[in-house]
Amino acid sequence: MKKILLVIFTCLITNLAHSEVKIGFVQVDQILKNAPQTAASNKKLEKEFKKRTDALKQAIQTIQKEEKDFAKNSLTLSDTEKEKISRKLQQGKIDAKRDERELREDIDIRRREEINELQTQVNKTIEEIAKDQNFDLIVYQGVAYASPKIDITDQIIKALGK
């Protein structure tokens, strides 16, 4: 990758003597953070997983309530009842942790899918702006420094909002 960039920059530098090269720079992480699609995607995911999240919260609250009741009533219970309730509470905790882990994994998978869609839109938008404004090169990775003069991140974010 570095060799390819070096070759591109070498070609550009040699071409500078013959013509002016228009270069742009994009901060993809800022675009992914500030694009209107990001907020819409977050709302979509929240809505999609709301029922499962609420059910998990309810299950955790129920377990906590049952633990408090068990702590209050444990002195009056027989050893058999204590063991039975204790096992039930332990199994409830295990189930809740498993459900939480599965929910988190499902949310992560969907979030990655949404980010991939957004990255596709970002790349398409960058390409459109590059063609419309006659950019010769737009870079967004492996850059140690880029002047604010060539930073077109805000243009990309605005274009994504249309």
What report would you give on this structure?
- This protein has 162 residues and is mainly alpha-helical.
- The model has no long low-confidence stretch (mean pLDDT 87).
- The chain starts with a helix and ends with a helix.
- It has a two-stranded parallel sheet.
- The chain has one domain: Skp domain (Protein Binding, DinI Protein, Chain A), CATH 3.30.910.
- It has five helices and two strands; from the N terminus they run H-E-H-H-H-E-H.
What attributes characterize this protein structure?
about 160 residues, Protein Binding, DinI Protein, Chain A, two-stranded parallel sheet, 5 helices, 2 strands
Quick overview:
The chain has five helices and two strands; from the N terminus they run αβαααβα. It is mainly alpha-helical and 162 residues long. The chain is rod-shaped and about 90 Å long.
Helical coverage, percent range: over 70%
Q: Give the averaged pLDDT, no decimals.
A: 87
Overall strand count: 2
| Count of alpha/pi helices | 5
Distance from N terminus to C terminus (CA atoms, Å) equals 33 Å
Topology readout:
Layout: H1 2-16, E1 23-25, H2 28-34, H3 36-73, H4 79-132, E2 137-139, H5 153-160
Parallel strand pairs: 1-2
